[in-house]
């Protein structure tokens, strides 16, 4: 078919021409500046677009996020401060074979972590065998003595996990941390993919991108599999702290996609060790709860007494086997960053295998020798508190003043158990649209793993981007954005 | 259905209907005041009075001129019944039940809210008022359409209907009241060209003009009262609203429409029956304003009993 001759673009500068790969591993380009093999199609596609076209597509994508209300709430700001997570429309591409290997490594890690949690709350063999020092576990603020002796259905504690991976300048992936409490971000993966299909329909037709759409079905299957055995058609619910929680959109989205009730603590009540929802027709029993409330707030009878978000008596119902909770209470012990340092040892101990995915080398400050090393080299280290998330309370040595170094030395000395340190990695970068051209920005990757009857790893995961120039912090609460992740 | 979810669906729908109604109030007043060029500012206070928020208004604004009243009723976040507040509330409620309503419903509410908010943030709105209120009215109507076409007509949808029709019944009666306040019905005006204009504007603001003409032809105040309050088939007439609300109430409980099994069914059934068996002559003889006032009080009691019967979390505990 004949059409109007396209002349735009000829006079505009090529938006890739001046792209600087820099000293980093670049997700799209090899050091010489040519596109990596998997990125060839994408490269050719964006070459044909003018910067104006790209910007238009970017604006269209952002506008549809606002229209759809895909937002998160920012803590500590005024009511109604909803923001969209800035979305960069250039996908981050991971090669299929590499993904298979990563996916294998993630499964291995989850199996070992789950065995660890089960062991810690039951026999504590790993402590008795002195693979992990007992005091490290018992002093973790996320260790829950109330959970000792619990036996969750099928022996599974961590049903939903988000594991943060980073790529260093050598091009290798490392595990940065494990999130086994209430990891969020999967809704962005699913929504980003929808947006990308509108933004680059041609690219999806030209190559096979592994689909992510069955995540919610996988999640529902896993949740159903936890129901008490005598229940034929289990009632599943997602428990949210409510609309002011930063991840509320996700809670609502997951409930909607699974077709289950989204409940808040005030909707539930416990009678005779069973959990019921208050409905317009009286009380309705609930069998499985995907809870997006931290342990601390889950049950004022057992954990924090001042919690208004939880359900009094729910842990008692759980102990009685009348309701299943995902993730199981107590899993947070594996989120502790000191425990993280021992995950390679766990894999060897429980599975007699070598870890497929390496940890970032980690110094635990409770150990005198390691602490001395950290303090001596603090200017080159990243120091993290053991039990924070969202990128808060950490020190990036090379980016900080000597006063800040000193401050962290004091903090470490005052509470050595609470700190770990890692060498500063040179995180990989990916090209991001900035105004009318591309610039490299640091990225990480959070794959999501569901542990039900089998283990399912969502192909790809959430690529988070540190949008501030030079920044290494990818958290959405601190100026991070996201990209769609394609496994091809 | 979860009590909290039912509560939120009901209020989402009520707030959208309320925002639409406030837009209609203001539109009718703009229309009338254009023809009452000599009356000046006096025509705006009654509007505030009919919404029942006069104390709050006087406290914040003092003088009841056009600008103040429009700001108060449209964009003032301190007024819980302003159009913007209604949309904020509708959206907050809808946001808490996104998984239970259709994606189209949510998107529509979100877009509706953003539209009003953007206009409120912009300068110079007073020049484009009629267009803006028309857009609000259209968005309100579109919400009903989207809801009917995309939400399963089950329990949740019936709560939606219940909220919408109770709110509409309340606000339609208040629209009549606006007219009452502006021009106390006086025999010498009846049948004059002037009166024709006034009542015509009122019918238009209720989207009732054409349908009224089809039924009665000439504009006669008593017939307008008859049509707005007592028509069985016109979807904005109070009696029709009460009938539809009553049907949804019984659909929710599954009980026989001819009786009652709880307090809201009893109260709404009685109220509907009175409307079904009264006449415009009776209403006017009793005093239109007094009749409307009494009606609104009883409608509030229906609303309260719906809250305690279906939504109050303690009730189910």
Protein described:
The complex is a heterodimer of chains A (about 500) and B (about 325). Chain A has about 500 residues and is an alpha+beta fold. Chain A is built from 15 helices and 22 strands. The radius of gyration of chain A is 23 Å and the shape is globular. Chain A starts with about 40 loop residues before the first helix and ends with a strand. Chain B has helices spanning about 5-35, 45-50, 55-60, 65-75, 85-95, 105-120, 130-150, 155-180, 195-205, 210-215, 220-230, 240-255, 265-275, 280-285, 290-310, 315. The chains are: A alpha+beta (about 500), B mainly alpha (about 325). The interface of A and B includes residues 80, 243, 256 and 278 of A.
Instruction: Indicate the mean pLDDT of chain B.
Output: 88
Uncertain segments of chain A: 1-11
Strand content of chain B: under 5%
Helix content of chain A: 25-40%
How can the largest sheet of chain A be summarized? 5 strands, mixed
Distance between the termini of chain B: 15 Å
| Unreliable residue stretches of chain B | none
Name the overall outline of chain A.
Answer: globular
Number of strands of chain B: 0
Largest sheet of chain B: none
Beta-strand content estimate of chain A: 15-25%
Integer-rounded radius of gyration of chain B: 19 Å
Helix content of chain B: over 70%
* Element order of chain B: H for helix, E for strand: HHHHHHHHHHHHHHHH
Please give the count of helices of chain B: 16
Q: Which word captures the global form of chain B?
A: globular
Could you give the distance between the termini of chain A?
A: 32 Å
Largest interface: A-B, 27 and 27 residues
Give the number of DSSP strands of chain A.
22
Category by helix and strand content of chain B: mainly alpha
What is the chains' assembly state? heterodimer
């Amino acid at each position: 078919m004949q059409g109007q001759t396209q002349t735009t673009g000829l006079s505009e500068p090529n938006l890739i021409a001046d792209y600087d790969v820099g000293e980093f591993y670049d997700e799209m380009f090899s050091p010489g500046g040519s596109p990596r093999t998997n990125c060839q199609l994408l490269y050719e596609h964006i070459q044909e677009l003018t910067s104006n076209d790209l910007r238009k597509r970017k604006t269209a994508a952002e506008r549809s996020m606002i229209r759809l209300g895909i937002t998160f709430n920012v803590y500590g700001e005024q009511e109604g401060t909803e923001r969209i997570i800035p979305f960069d429309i250039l996908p981050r591409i991971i090669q299929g074979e590499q993904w298979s290997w990563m996916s294998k490594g993630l499964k291995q890690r989850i199996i070992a972590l789950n065995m660890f949690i089960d062991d810690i709350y039951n026999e504590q063999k790993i402590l008795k065998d002195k693979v992990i020092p007992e005091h490290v576990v018992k002093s973790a603020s996320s260790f829950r003595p109330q959970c000792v002796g619990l036996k969750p259905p099928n022996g599974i504690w961590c049903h939903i996990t988000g594991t943060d991976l980073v790529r260093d300048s050598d091009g290798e992936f490392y595990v940065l941390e494990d999130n086994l409490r209430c990891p969020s971000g999967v809704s962005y993966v699913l929504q980003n993919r929808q947006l990308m299909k509108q933004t680059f329909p041609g690219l999806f037709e030209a190559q096979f991108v592994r689909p992510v759409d069955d995540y919610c079905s996988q999640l529902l299957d896993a949740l159903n599999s936890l129901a008490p055995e005598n229940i034929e058609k289990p009632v599943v619910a997602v428990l949210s702290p409510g609309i002011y929680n930063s991840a509320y959109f996700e809670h609502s989205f997951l409930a909607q996609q699974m077709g289950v009730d989204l409940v808040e603590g005030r909707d539930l009540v416990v009678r005779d060790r069973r959990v019921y929802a208050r409905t317009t027709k009286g009380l309705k029993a609930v069998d499985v709860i995907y809870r997006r409330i931290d342990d601390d707030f889950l049950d004022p009878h057992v954990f924090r007494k001042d919690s208004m978000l939880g359900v009094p008596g729910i842990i008692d119902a759980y102990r009685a086997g009348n309701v299943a909770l995902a993730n199981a209470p107590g899993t947070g012990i594996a989120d502790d960053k000191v425990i993280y340092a021992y995950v390679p040892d766990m894999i060897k101990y429980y599975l007699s295998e070598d870890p497929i995915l390496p940890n970032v080398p980690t110094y635990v400050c409770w150990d005198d020798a390691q602490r001395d090393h950290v303090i001596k080299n603090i200017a080159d280290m990243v120091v993290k508190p053991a039990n924070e998330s969202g990128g808060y309370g950490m020190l990036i040595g090379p980016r900080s003043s000597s006063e800040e170094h000193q401050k962290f030395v004091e903090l470490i000395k005052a509470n050595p158990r609470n700190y770990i340190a890692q060498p500063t990695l040179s995180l990989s970068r990916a090209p991001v649209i900035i105004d009318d051209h591309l610039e490299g920005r640091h990225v990480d990757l959070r794959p999501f793993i569901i542990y039900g009857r089998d283990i399912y790893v969502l192909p790809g995961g959430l690529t988070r981007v540190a949008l501030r120039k030079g920044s290494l912090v990818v958290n959405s609460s601190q100026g991070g954005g996201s990209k769609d992740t394609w496994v091809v | 259905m979860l009590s909290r979810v039912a509560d939120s669906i009901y209020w989402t729908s009520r707030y959208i209907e309320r925002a639409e109604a406030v837009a209609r109030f203001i539109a009718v007043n703009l229309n009338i005041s254009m023809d009452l060029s000599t009356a000046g500012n006096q025509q705006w206070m009654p509007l505030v009075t009919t919404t029942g928020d006069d104390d709050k208004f006087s406290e914040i604004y003092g003088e009841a001129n056009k600008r103040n009243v429009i700001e108060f009723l449209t964009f003032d976040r301190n007024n819980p019944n302003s159009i913007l507040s209604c949309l904020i509330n509708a959206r907050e409620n809808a946001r808490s039940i996104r998984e239970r309503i259709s994606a189209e419903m949510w998107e529509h509410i979100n877009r509706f809210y953003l539209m009003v908010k953007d206009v409120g943030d912009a300068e110079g709105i007073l020049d484009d008022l009629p267009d803006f209120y028309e857009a609000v009215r259209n968005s309100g109507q579109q919400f009903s359409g989207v809801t009917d076409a995309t939400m399963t007509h089950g329990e949740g949808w019936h709560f939606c209907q219940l909220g919408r029709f109770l709110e509409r019944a309340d606000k339609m009666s208040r629209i009549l009241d606006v007219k009452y306040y502006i021009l106390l019905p006086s025999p010498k005006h009846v049948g004059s060209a002037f009166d024709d204009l006034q009542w015509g504007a009122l019918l238009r603001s209720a989207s009732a003009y054409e349908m009224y003409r089809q039924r009665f032809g000439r504009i006669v105040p008593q017939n307008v009262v008859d049509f707005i309050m007592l028509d069985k088939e016109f979807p904005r007439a109070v009696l029709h609203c009460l009938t539809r609300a009553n049907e949804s109430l019984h659909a929710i409980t599954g009980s026989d429409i001819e009786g009652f099994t709880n307090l809201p069914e009893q109260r709404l059934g009685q109220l509907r029956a009175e409307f079904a068996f009264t006449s415009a002559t009776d209403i006017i003889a009793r005093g239109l304003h007094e009749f409307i006032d009494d009606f609104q009080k009883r409608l509030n009691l229906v609303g309260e009993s719906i809250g305690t019967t279906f939504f109050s979390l303690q009730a189910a505990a």
